[in-house]
Design brief:
Blueprint (H helix, E strand, L loop, with lengths): L7 H15 L1 H58 L1
Length: 82
């Protein structure tokens, strides 16, 4: 018993029919196209996550700079009021 009631021999027969219909060259090209598509998808996903991390870091730096400016402004207000 194989995958969901399909035996190994039935899978081999179906694979043989597919090879006869399309030929090995076309299947090899199709496999290469699918592989390059998956590779491109993975690259895009990693680039997107890297962009999001960079954006988060930039926002955190901006918040830190804002806090520094806020602290500096408050300290200058205290010295000006004296």
């Amino acid at each position: 018993m194989g995958f969901g009631g399909i035996s190994i021999w039935q899978l081999v027969i179906v694979l043989g029919i597919i090879i006869l219909l399309f030929g090995t060259k076309k299947l090899r090209n199709l496999g290469g196209d699918v592989g390059s598509a998956v590779k491109g998808f993975k690259k895009a996903m990693s680039d997107d996550s890297a962009d999001q991390e960079q954006k988060k870091i930039t926002e955190e730096k901006g918040d830190a700079d804002f806090k520094k400016d806020d602290v500096a402004a408050k300290s200058s207000e205290k010295t000006d009021s004296k």
